[in-house]
């Protein structure tokens, strides 16, 4: 839980560090794109590595790399020597680490939690993670305003160290059976398995629209909007805290409500992410933007929790990291282009008009998959048969 506090405040620290250095929306877009670009190159490799070797060891070393990069950024900001390109390089290193950490972390639950407890475990993990992060953005905004971004980024570096120590205590053996196969063969096997599951790649296509639009609207243009209309870091920090509070509410709802119609719930929850973009586009008061952000967090967390349960149920654990890497890659592939285009587009059309277009794109991406029967028919299996592979069931 300690490491999650760093993840809660770091985005605000990094965003306002770039804005303080005069980077503007284009500079922030470059920093965010640099974080995503290595993931596009390395995610598939990260998936194979996580399926071949100890996932705990992968998580330890990636946290160490991120800690070093964030500490370097903090020192530069403290000394006054930081430039936007320094933050671009730090963001790229952290993105490279995430390429290996994400697939490894995604496969840990199936190794340490029994099948009948995984759904509840996913919900409890989300509750714990997001409860810690509720106050983080607001505190981060206050810290940025009071002492500067360097302290916030420095704290994030310390929490990466704490995460490495905690991950080192996990006793997870490597998948020895996979080491004897060729690396390229593992990649091909993962792709064949991914492509054979139409329910999976249909929803990945939805994510390929929603994820870049959401990240551009919320993570990039959100701080710019907060600086211009919400009073700066403090006001935007309150909005982010409301979003995180919604993440907790959604995970709590998932814990109490065993969802059956996964496809419908995932799509509706995804659609809620249009609300804060629309609220900012309409120039609503801060409190209404925060309410919209809370609703978006609730929908996103509920959909992510039930989706994780479905994926863990239907994909064998020895292939899980690779298939998740393909899934993640499909969603993040357009993100760098979105980050790079957001600055010029918002400068030409205006921030609010760009946010309105993003909200419309998310709504469209929500509706289209629901027109497909295979998406509407997606269900979780009863707990007592959750161990049975359902490799060909439509999503």
How is this structure best described in words?
The chain is globular, with a radius of gyration of 20 Å. Helix 1 (2-20) crosses helix 6 (118-133), helix 1 crosses helix 7 and helix 6 (118-133) packs antiparallel against helix 15. With 395 residues, the chain is mainly alpha-helical. The two termini are 33 Å apart. 83% of the residues lie in helices and 0% in strands. The longest helix has 32 residues, at 198-229.
Break the fold down into its secondary structure elements and pairings.
Elements: H1 2-20, H2 24-52, H3 55-79, H4 84-106, H5 108-112, H6 118-133, H7 135-147, H8 149-168, H9 176-179, H10 183-196, H11 198-229, H12 233-256, H13 262-271, H14 274-281, H15 286-314, H16 317-332, H17 335-349, H18 351-370, H19 373-376
Helix pairs in contact: 1-2, 1-6, 1-7, 1-8, 1-11, 2-4, 2-10, 2-11, 2-16, 2-17, 3-4, 3-8, 4-16, 6-12, 6-15, 7-8, 7-12, 10-16, 11-14, 11-16, 11-17, 11-18, 12-15, 13-15, 13-18, 14-15, 14-18, 17-18
- Please identify the structural class as seen in this structure: mainly alpha
Radius of gyration of CA atoms, rounded to a whole number: 20 Å
Per DSSP, the total helix count is 19
Which outline best applies?
globular
Percentage of helical residues? Answer: over 70%
Instruction: Give the topology string: H per helix, E per strand.
Output: HHHHHHHHHHHHHHHHHHH
Q: Residue-averaged pLDDT, rounded?
A: 81
What is the terminal separation in angstroms?
33 Å
User: Beta fraction of the residues?
Assistant: under 5%
Uncertain segments are 384-395
| Main β-sheet description | none
What's the total count of β strands? 0
